[in-house]
Amino acid sequence: MAILGERASVENVERARHELGLDRPLWEQYFLYIGKIFHGDLGRSIRSNTPVAHEIVAKFPATVELSLFAMFIALIVGIPAGIISAAKRNSIFDNIAMIAALIGVSMPIFWLGLMLAFLFSIFLKWLPFSGRLDSTIIFSAKTNLLLLDSIIARNWVAFKNSLAHLILPSLALSTIPMAIIARMTRSCLLEELGQDYIRTARAKGLRENRVLLKHAMKNAFLPVITTIGLQAGTLLSGAILTETIFSWPGIGRWIYMAIQSRDYPIVQGAALLITLIYVLVNLLVDISYAFFDPRIRYQ
Amino acid sequence: MEKIAKSLEIPEARYSFFRQAARRLWDTRSARIGLFIVAFFVIMAIVAPLAFPYDPKIDSNLAMKLKPPSLEHLFGTDQLGRDVLVRVVHGAPISLRVGLAAVALGLMVGTTLGMIAGFFRGALDSIIMRLMDIMLAFPATLLAIAIVAMRGPGLNNTMFAIGIVSIPGYARIARAVVLALQEREYVSAARAIGAKPMRVLFRHILPNGLSPLVVQATLNLATAILEAAALGFLGLGAQPPQPEWGAMLSDSYKFLTIGAYWPVLFPGLAIMLTVLGFNLLGDGLRDALDPRMIIKSKYF
Questions:
Q1: ipTM score for this prediction
Q2: Closest to A106 (Cβ–Cβ): which among B256, B272, B300?
Q3: What's the sign of the alpha-carbon dihedral B251, B254, B259, B265?
Q4: Distance CA B191, CA B30 (A)
Q5: Which CA distances in Å does B181 have to B120, B129, B291, B293?
Q6: Considering the entire predicted model, what is its pTM?
Q7: In B, residues 265-284, which contact A (CB 8 Å cutoff)?
Q8: Nearest to B94 by CA among B223, B219, B229
């Protein structure tokens, strides 16, 4: 129905069902789909008839750029905030940071995105609202990661422009991971600071910074890394909302538009991709344990 | 025992566990704030439809469209001239209902599955928990979006999807609780006097392992409301003209470019406050229901 419209004749509907394989039993359709995936075939878009796999390759770099930049912001703010909060427990900084973190996890990111856009691009006109690059800038992209491309091409105008486009969406996307990472860093560090070896380290006269960053942080880091890995899921699902608001031409907005037009092969393909990345990132996190914790390596 | 309690100066030791927990909850400032926020929205959700009946289908007054906040319309009016305050107030029962229904579904199904897995172990345990692992392999919001996209938009499917997504969380906690409590003496005693497995499970184990599930449910209410709003915003949840907060945002955000921030600001603030309330309450409950935490923070 989504393809042929409301007035399709019975024969046409039958033919379309046959062409799409919808007249076969469900399990056969499923195995056919799985079989095709292994050949890199995710089907074709119902609307545009382009192969889904090609579209993914074209759109994915935009989402990667956005997610990585958001994660970068989340890490450079979240981890130091967590460390300072733990070191100065119950201080004003700690209280403000933890209230901010709690508000961060309670905020709908699409709303935060819209409010940031209103303040910085509509009201103050400091940053652009939508897209990745102004249309006046002509620039041939190689990897489609515009920041990287503009650095390679030494095109600083394009670099500045794409960075300006990147700031608002990635700021909106980074709030939840930032808040969760800050809370996790604080609580793990506090737990470690209560351990005996910390008392020993302090007793032998080490400076507090060294105790905190060298001794405690090393041990507190493992659960924090797990949390960071789990945030990959938040980032990728959050991308659906953020990209929609900021007209960011990545996988997220593409899923949104496919849902609106009931283009199921796209929804399936993109959901599969996101889940695959999520699982892979968490696998990498598990493997990285061995790197960070020698006890696991020896087992 | 009494002597020890006295020497550690735990005056509450005389009272029941729940009374102590309630006391601790009330003594935590953040939890108290959370309780107030939640109470405010719950009362609003109950009173608003009774006191001021509202029919979104006939509400529109184009002559008054997109008026900024004023004394007459405290939160301004939206693109159809509807009072934003009225719609935000009437959005409260919708969001709370979605949250409660989703949590109820997840809590019931998840707890039952987890308890069965933990109690009977063996193949059943493996099947149930591997199924839960598969569900956890999907990012939650994405899975909810996929379920609603398949079943069609609407509030009922939103509740269903968000509830389904939360099942593995409860199942894991319930299983862990059963595994921990199974070895207790009162459970062996119940078995010894011939209680059937289901009776042991639901009458003896469940009531004693309720605390972590209550905490999870409270925190999950916050996530459920947030996810429902996200689905509403994507056009998958409540359908216009229903005054659901997320859907209101998605209706009005195009008018930000002409400077009309109020139809976006206020529904979003309502979402944030409700979710914040449940998060504060959930964190407070976690501390209050886990006596070890309190003793730890007080005496060590």
A1: 0.81
A2: B272
A3: positive
A4: 42
A5: 14, 19, 17, 19
A6: 0.84
A7: 265, 267-268, 271-272, 275-276, 279-280, 283
A8: B229
